[in-house]
Design a protein that fits this description.
about 325 residues, mainly alpha, Fic-like fold, Multidrug-efflux Transporter Regulator, Chain: A, Domain 2, 2 domains, three-stranded antiparallel sheet, 14 helices, 3 strands, about 0% strand
Length: about 325
């Protein structure tokens, strides 16, 4: 996995962090506020929270309630925002290492008022990940596994900081030490490590939810971590670009998240049949970004460009296997 580009982009930002004439305070605050909402919205949405980005902002910035949304969803938003604030305070205090108590406190803040009996405590029961074939550790092994994990966190890192942060996330969700809140805690832990090493936090977009879950499961079942590491590296890359655009006085936020396409919409937009799109997906030429509650595939609009390339290569009489290799 190549991380040199991330190192170079971080180096480009360094002068603005160390010199007196760095980014204006108002701009820094604007970026902090944007990341606070975006990280809270996306992390909770991955776990099924139905608050929109705008609703999340109202809840955590204005303290307002949203009609039709549960108390739990409101608490998930405010708790994540507070946990993120605590993480940033930890970074400001120049904390250099991540201890077991830090992980437990992050989890405590995530579940506070939602499941107080489990907040900040390891699970004592067996758990399963819904829809996954991954077998999680016996609860009796969790304390020892966490002790080993925390010792690993304190070892001198030989990997790139972004890879180290991603690996920490992967190891924590694989141990799955808590009854609930494992994903949110792992993502905050990953972002704590990134911030400690001078990188901006990684935002896993809602449109990447299926890729994120699938790549994690692939690694947990003994496959390669390449897809997972690539996704995390891309997320950090996007965040670095946001800061670099601010330095260059360009737009500092990503555009609103685009709507995903149903398979029929995608097929119509590229003049192909639904059967063809489904076949190409099964052959690994396309990946769906998510599924509806009814189990129907949803595709990223970027697939339109990918299909155009597939169509062009087919006209040149390349096989599907050759096309897949060329696109990957």
């Amino acid at each position: 996995m190549e991380f040199n580009r991330l190192t170079d982009k971080k180096a480009e930002l360094e002068p603005y962090r160390t010199q007196g004439a760095g980014l204006p305070a108002a701009l820094v605050q604007n970026l902090d506020d944007w990341f606070r909402v975006e990280l809270t919205y996306t992390s909770n949405a991955i776990e099924g929270n139905t608050l929109t980005r705008q609703e999340t902002a109202l809840v955590i910035e204005k303290g307002l309630t949203v009609g039709g949304k549960s108390l739990k969803e409101h608490l998930e938003a405010t708790n994540h925002a507070r946990a993120l604030d605590w993480v940033k305070e930890l970074v400001s205090s120049r904390q250099k290492t991540v201890s077991e108590n830090v992980i437990l406190e992050i989890h405590n803040l995530i579940l506070k008022g939602i499941e107080d009996s489990h907040a900040g405590h390891y699970r004592s029961v067996a758990v399963r990940i819904s829809g996954s074939n991954v077998i999680l550790p016996n609860p009796l092994k969790v304390p020892d596994l966490m002790d080993e994990f925390c010792r690993w966190l304190k070892k001198p890192g030989i990997n790139h900081p972004v890879e180290f942060a991603a690996e920490a996330h992967y190891r924590l969700v694989t141990i799955h030490p808590f009854v609930d809140g494992n994903g949110r805690t792992a993502r905050l832990l990953m972002n704590l490590i990134l911030l400690l090493h001078g990188y901006p936090p990684a935002i896993i977009r809602t449109r990447e939810r299926l890729r994120y879950i699938t790549s994690l499961e692939k690694a947990q079942l003994g496959g390669a971590k390449d897809d997972y590491l690539k996704l995390i590296a891309s997320a950090v890359d996007r965040s670095l670009d946001i800061y670099l655009k601010a330095v260059r006085n360009e737009s500092t936020t990503e555009p609103e998240e685009v709507s995903l396409l149903k398979i029929g919409q995608l097929a119509k937009s590229v003049d192909e049949t639904v059967r063809t799109i489904r076949f190409w997906t099964g052959e690994g030429l396309l990946n769906h970004a998510d599924t509806t509650a009814s189990g129907y595939a949803l595709y990223d609009p970027d697939c339109v460009l990918r299909i155009r390339k597939i169509q062009e290569l087919k006209k040149q009489r390349y096989t599907l296997r050759e096309i897949r290799e060329m696109l990957d």
